[in-house]
Design goal:
The longest helix is centred in the N-terminal third of the chain and has 19 residues. Helix content is 40%, strand content 14%. It is of the alpha/beta class. The protein folds into two domains: 246 residues, 3-Layer(aba) Sandwich (Aspartate Aminotransferase, domain 2); 93 residues, Aspartate Aminotransferase, domain 1 (Alpha-Beta Complex), CATH 3.90.1150.10. The protein is built from 13 helices and 13 strands. The mean pLDDT is 94.
Amino acid sequence: MDWNIIRQQFPITQNQTYLMNAAVSGMHERTLKVANEMLMKIAMKGAIADEDYFNLIVSSKDIAAQFVNAGPAEVVFTSNTSHNMNLLAMMLKDSGSKRKILVPDDEFPSSVIPWHHHGFEVIKIQSQKHVYSAYQFEEHITDDVAAIVISGIQYGTGFKMPIKEIVYIANKYSVPVILNATQQLGQSSVDLKELGVAAMSCSCHKWLGAGIGMALLYVNENFSKDKKWPFAGWVSVEEPWTLSIDKPQVRRDAGVLGTGSAPFINMAAIQEAMKVQMEIGKDRIEQRICELSQKLYQELTTLNYKVFTPRESKTFYSGIISFAHPEKEAIEIASLLKEQKVFINHRKGRMRASIHFYNNEDDIQALISGLRSL
């Protein structure tokens, strides 16, 4: 695998050091081309291309289902993860009286705020130096716990959660696990049949590199079969093109949430981004990211910075490294690096460098040199 050739296919790598992939990752030139082609089709053909738009819904769902190893009827595209968590909170709220959820104390707000809004009590599981075990969650499972809501990779520290172990324990108590895979899909393989989660959301602008504006939602058919879907629209029914306004027979799968016309530009981009990653190989991508991030971690440990990302075991590894200077503010350092065209994020008073498979050792050295110069 020639990573240098692949790197050249991502315009975001040109003339800068881009290490903000946990916020928004770069788009492959093919993904960009397909998105632009769809935009021009809408602009130049309008309703003449109606059939193409709705065929895209089917094909993109098929590709997404293949990408995460799920059934096409279990996946649907929506706007973002906050939207999806609201949907799932409403489904659980309507189907029972349990009103507690368990979340990691490092969790991203989009996983949690919707549950507060719908009246659930949020129980935060405390980490041990940003490391979590399945048994920490088990200790807090009671009869009134409705779900465990958890990111596969924590956005602030890069810790990779033991999802399979958490699901195994949760199943003993019939507690569904809802996965936020936004920091996972595109940098680490997600096999939903193997994981056994009840539902999954992934905003597609981060490691998938599919542009901003759309998310993938998976709802396991066993989880959804005894629950009411929160809303429906004209394409949520079995036969939308009859255009009937009589009481409908709505779909009995996740497709019910595809309520109307979609952002087809985003959908085309997501489909192509997933094709690109499958062609490269998801396992190769994960290995490349882990190798590069470990090199970055080792370089950071030679500097006078505190590194917060757990790296005691390879099972923890991801592309996210979180660190802080003992004296200087993270926002100040990020601003100074920006002047050198080295781009990282700052989150909660810490710096966050997130390295993707199209990055390279030169990017690592550019960041380290920039930090040394401050």
